Amino acid sequence: MLLFLYTLLLFHYLQTKVNTLCRMMADPKHPLLSKDGDVTIGGIFAVHSKLALSSFEFREKPQPLSCSRFVKLKTLRNIRKYDLLSRIKFYSMASSNEINRSEGLLFSMNSTMALMNGSFKIPVSATCDCLSNRKDYPSFFRTIASDYHQSRALAYMVKHFGWSWVGAVNTDNDYGNYGMNIFLNTAQEEGICVEYSVKFYRTETEKLKKVVDIIKQGTAKVIVAFLTSFEMNNLLEQLSVQNITGLQMIGVEAWITAKSLITSKSFRFLGGSLGFAVRKINIEGFSDYVIKEFWDTAFPCSQTERNSSQYALNCSGYQDLLPLKNYNEDVPEQRYASNVYKAVYAVAHSVHSLLNCREQKGCEKGLTIQPQQVSNQFNPVGYYDASLPPDQRFVLNTENIIWVGGQLGPRSVCSESCPPGTRKATQKGKPVCCYDCIPCAEGEISNETDSNNCRQCPGEYWSNAEKNKCILKAVEFLSFTEVMSIVLVFFSMIGAGLTVLVAILFYIKKDTPIVKANNSELSFLLLFSLTLCFLCSLTFIGRPTEWSCMLRHTAFGITFVLCISCVLGKTIVVLMAFKATLPGSNVMKWFGPAQQRLSVLAFTLIQVLICVLWLTISPPFPHKNTKYYQEKIILECHLGSIIGFSSVLGYIGLLAVLCFILAFLARTLPDNFNEAKFITFSMLIFCAVWITFIPAYVSSPGKFTVAVEIFAIVASSFGLLLCIFVPKCLIILFKPEQNTKQHMMGKASTKSN
């Protein structure tokens, strides 16, 4: 594809009746084609590119182009089409003929606008954003949008595909430098990192080699090439020499649709390239007009004239071109021609408005039209429309894109995206697009790709295993389904079952001396309280509720006081019994069965009163404890009042110590009636268990606190059951000969002697 750079220069030319034939003007070194009229619109065009020159064979002394004949061509079959496409640009200016036929655009003044070559600097490229400065270029008008929009659109396209790590190459002139500078600024705004930004000019061969070396050593797979077709061709040649493939090229209008760049060698570098191109021509009747005009001028031969003498004279050397005479498929590819067409109309309408102003009231007398007074309207280029809202400016349909190498699409990133559950940590000394993915800490999540920070989960939530979602914390309590709970329940039920069996055995043997000798009523009450002690441990297992929290501690406190009160009563009975054997002693009448029952009731009522006060003032309640574990919630029973709980335990401890002292004092009494040493051992075990319970209770977290409390209850209950009742059961079951009154009295007499 040829590259055409357009600049419109508007001028008036005063003339009387004119000859409509084309003629040469000005210095032959700067040839101009002109047609006389009231208002002349001047246009400057590049009619060939560096690539096309290889197809031309100029005469020894270059001759200017004329309306009737193009330069002689060496290979007519290959080049005639090129001449046609080049000439389209000139024929686009012929839209002035349409304007002259339009009644609405006829001009009524005979002023002159002179084209002074020395008054204008022709820009290198008409798309360069540098030319937008009206102060420096007051007479410059565009037939194509500024590179400002194209450069920004390139950055948006790169971001659209997720290419955060790209390389950039540009032509080292105003066109490339201004365009690349806009792209780099926009890329930075959009969070795109540029691994390198290099430039070269078409004559800088060594610099080009360095540029290619940088591309080869880089890791970016996407290259934004803000180059003219000259530099792009040079770059492709060097990429081919060094066999650098696998790059995704992003191009600009200067080369993205240039067919001349596509060869069998270059396609492996350009295949799948993306970029913004000038819109195709779409002018009704234009194709037929261009084809007819060109062939009638440059090739005045036809199939019907083959037998004429004129045909033999003029057309004998062009016989092979006859099949191509109606070829017009490439006309729509001349994208810039439509811009020339529109520009001519835009200037004509503007001049028409200005000239009409002179005929209207209030217009300035002697109006002089300045070039900068003529305005132009820009149309969207490609798929990018800067006039729309930001979220609607860039529209891209990727369905028909053929990616380089047939991939689903290249990836060009310095670091792979950080998945949810991680955060980005910039690598030291590298751009922000180069980072490490750091897993979120416990209790933190990131639920987006490439998250810069992890956020803390709220109070009762915790991060899941993937750290990408906050989930409710696991609620922990000692449930009946846990192994530890099953073991504790098993021993609790065994203890309760054994206690019931002992009670049954004692009831069966209630009339035997060994059951009567140690106050059978207190024994049965003690067995009942021990059963409750074993069973109350079950209230500590399961999900804590308001009622279960109040029940577990009060039931434990009351049943244990009842148990210790019975043991204390039995100890006192033993002491009183031996005191009563002394001559003149009448102690037993003061501590008979009624007094024993009353003492147990009194001791128990005191504990009941403590519990009532505790429950009234500050009862236990379910509490979600997050102190020990951040990742889970321990559902426990808060004590409510520490004083209330301490009072319950302290009262139990007081009775236990008193019972231990009395039992210890009675341990030397005769064996026949002496239960004191067994009570001493039971109280020793009881006190040892509960003394060790305190530090274990304080230091055990969560459900283990409850397990320690259950263990203390079960262990102390087993201590009482085994130490007090097992010896009697052994005698009842295995030594019935000792379960007689004579044996017990005789043994007592022997010992007394």
Summarize the entry for a quick read.
This protein has 19 helices and 18 strands. It has helices at residues 76-92, 95-101, 147-160, 174-189, 205-217, 229-241, 267-270, 286-298, 309-314, 335-357, 483-508, 513-516, 520-536, 546-580, 593-617, 642-665, 676-699, 703-734, 741-752, and strands spanning 7-12, 23-25, 32-34, 39-44, 165-171, 193-200, 222-226, 248-251, 274-275, 422-426, 435-439, 444-445, 455-456, 461-463, 470-472, 474-476, 621-625, 632-638. β2 and β3 form a beta hairpin.
Assembly context of the chains:
single chain
Count helical runs. Answer: 19
Could you describe the largest sheet, including whether it forms a barrel?
A: 5 strands, parallel
Strand content: 5-15%
Question: Any idea what the radius of gyration is?
Answer: 54 Å
Structural class: alpha/beta
List the strand order in the largest sheet: 6-5-7-8-9
Task: Compute the separation of the termini in Å.
Answer: 137 Å
Tertiary shape: rod-shaped
Instruction: Provide the helix percentage.
Output: 40-55%
Number of strands: 18
* Uncertain regions spanning at least 5 consecutive residues: 1-22, 24-31, 50-89, 108-121, 376-382, 748-753
Query: What's the mean pLDDT score?
Result: 75
Signal peptide: 1-16
Membrane topology: Multi-pass membrane protein
Family: Belongs to the G-protein coupled receptor 3 family.
Protein name: G-protein coupled receptors family 3 profile domain-containing protein
Structure commentary:
This protein has helices at residues 76-92, 95-101, 147-160, 174-189, 205-217, 229-241, 267-270, 286-298, 309-314, 335-357, 483-508, 513-516, 520-536, 546-580, 593-617, 642-665, 676-699, 703-734, 741-752; strands at residues 7-12, 23-25, 32-34, 39-44, 165-171, 193-200, 222-226, 248-251, 274-275, 422-426, 435-439, 444-445, 455-456, 461-463, 470-472, 474-476, 621-625, 632-638. It is α/β, with parallel strands linked by helices and 753 residues long. A hairpin with a 6-residue loop joins strand 17 (621-625) and strand 18 (632-638). The chain has 19 helices and 18 strands. The model is unreliable at 1-22, 24-31, 50-89, 108-121, 376-382 and 748-753 (pLDDT under 50). It comes from Cyprinus carpio. Keywords: Cell membrane, G-protein coupled receptor, Glycoprotein, Membrane, Receptor, Signal, Transducer, Transmembrane, Transmembrane helix. Residues 1-16 form the signal peptide.
